[in-house]
């Protein structure tokens, strides 16, 4: 397991403060606000800690205010419903006495039922695609690379086709990217779901900005997950 993935697992190891109340720590990084994927992943972990059995099968959330990266986050869990098959939880993330995020998650006990899946697209396999850092370095032409790309990240992203920051404009409102944890996680279904939740906030804007002829480094907007 990489150091960055190990630290993400540490961030997801919430401290129990009281029944239904948990506290999440912050990474020691210089940031203007908390990464949304971190808040969502910690909130899901808080919800899962109050569920005896069942796997999360859906969640809906809203980012209400920017998170302060210098203080811990409290997560209050409301046990909406405990059923035989379905369990529902509401989680509110709090800093400085105010809600910064809320989530509603549903957990389902595994049962026999209808099953189907969509055929995966025919694309390059991740093993044949360079890492994000390798591609950025190759495209930099010897120029200095932003510190964010130099850092080790818990999620390995392999973009198919052009990078989101390519000079081709405008771009289609889609982006295909392989993602996986940068290492092996413990055999814990809730932990895996939380890491996927963390990763889900990593490349949404890459697809959204394409048709608008905007790039992250344009300096013309401020983006946030809502």
Describe this structure in words.
The model has no long low-confidence stretch (mean pLDDT 88). The protein has two domains: 106 residues, Hotdog Thioesterase (Thiol Ester Dehydrase, Chain A, Roll); 93 residues, Hotdog Thioesterase (Thiol Ester Dehydrase, Chain A), CATH 3.10.129.10. The chain is built from six helices and eight strands. Helices cover 23% and strands 26% of the residues. Strand 1 and strand 2 form a beta hairpin. With 226 residues, it is α+β, with helices and mostly antiparallel strands. Strands 1-2-4-5-6-3 form a six-stranded antiparallel sheet, with helices on one face. The longest helix has 13 residues. It is globular.
Describe, in short, the structure shown.
By secondary structure, the protein is an alpha+beta fold. The protein contains six helices and eight strands; from the N terminus they run αββαββββααββαα. The longest helix is centred in the first third of the chain and has 13 residues, at 36-48.
């Amino acid at each position: 397991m990489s150091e960055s993935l190990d630290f993400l697992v540490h961030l997801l190891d919430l401290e129990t403060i009281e029944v239904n109340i948990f506290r999440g720590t912050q990474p020691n990084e210089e940031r203007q606000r908390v990464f949304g994927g971190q808040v969502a992943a910690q909130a899901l972990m808080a919800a899962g800690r109050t569920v005896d059995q069942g796997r999360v099968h859906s969640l809906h959330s809203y980012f209400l205010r920017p998170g302060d990266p210098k203080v811990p986050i409290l997560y209050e869990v409301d046990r909406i419903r405990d059923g035989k098959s379905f369990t529902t939880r509401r989680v509110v993330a709090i800093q400085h006495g105010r809600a910064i995020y809320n989530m509603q998650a549903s957990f389902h006990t595994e049962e026999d039922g209808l099953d189907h899946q969509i055929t995966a697209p025919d694309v390059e396999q991740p093993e044949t695609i360079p890492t994000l850092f390798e591609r950025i370095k190759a495209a930099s032409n010897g120029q200095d690379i932003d510190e964010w790309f130099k850092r080790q990240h818990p999620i390995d992203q392999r973009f198919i086709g052009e990078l989101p920051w390519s000079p081709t404009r405008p771009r289609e409102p889609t982006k295909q990217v392989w993602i996986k944890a940068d290492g092996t996680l413990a055999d814990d279904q809730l932990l895996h779901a939380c890491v996927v939740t963390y990763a889900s906030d990593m490349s949404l804007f890459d697809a959204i900005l394409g048709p608008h002829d905007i790039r992250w480094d344009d300096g013309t907007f401020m983006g946030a997950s809502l």
